[in-house]
Amino acid sequence: MKRLVWDSIKVFIIFIACTCLFYFGLRMLSAEYDNYHRYDPPEGPSVKVFNTEQTLIDRLDLFFRLGE
Description:
This is DUF4227 domain-containing protein. By secondary structure, the protein is mainly alpha-helical.
């Protein structure tokens, strides 16, 4: 009986240690990606994709040509 209790305590301690390691690993990854700025303005020779100078006829033509 004493051995069963001792083995259960060892398994419980290993489980708690692995859970803490996993939790703090996820927190470190989260902190790393919180500091990553995905929406910074592009640097270098970037090309403007959106053209706001379209007429209504151009937009309707594109709409019907693409079949949307």
